Amino acid sequence: KKKNPPKKKPKISWRARLSRNFQAIRIHFATVPLPNTRTSVPSPESKGVADFINKNYEELKLLNPKLPILIRHAEEVEPRLWAEFDYGGGAYRDLTAGSYT
């Protein structure tokens, strides 16, 4: 009689595990105003952050509906990510283009 191999636990993506480790996530990124308009666009330093948010925010909220993901954009701010941990405390990471490679 053949033995069945042990079943592996399904891998859960890091996106689905965010709410297991964090109380909240805050993301700040810089924008620059377009001349003669009331519109602004992400600064060159923040373009990667803005692209990530546009591409992934919906899925992150779908997989972590109770996790606060706070996104702020303003002129003259450095792009950063703050994370508040379940066990207390927190940390931040500079997200300026090229600083996180």
Structure description:
The radius of gyration is 18 Å and the shape is elongated. The protein is α+β, with helices and mostly antiparallel strands and 101 residues long. Strand 1 (22-33) and strand 2 form a beta hairpin. It contains two helices and five strands, in the order αββαβββ. 8% of the residues are buried. Strands 1, 2, 3, 4 and 5 form a five-stranded mixed sheet that branches. The longest helix is centred in the middle third of the chain and has 17 residues, at 47-63. The protein starts with 13 loop residues before the first helix and ends in a 7-residue tail after the last strand.
Q: In percent, how much strand structure appears in the residues?
A: 25-35%
Helical element count? 2
Mean pLDDT: 84
Summing up helix and strand content along with how strands pair, one would put the structural category as alpha+beta
What's this model, at a glance?
The chain is an alpha+beta fold and 101 residues long. The chain has 2 helices and 5 strands; from the N terminus they run αββαβββ.
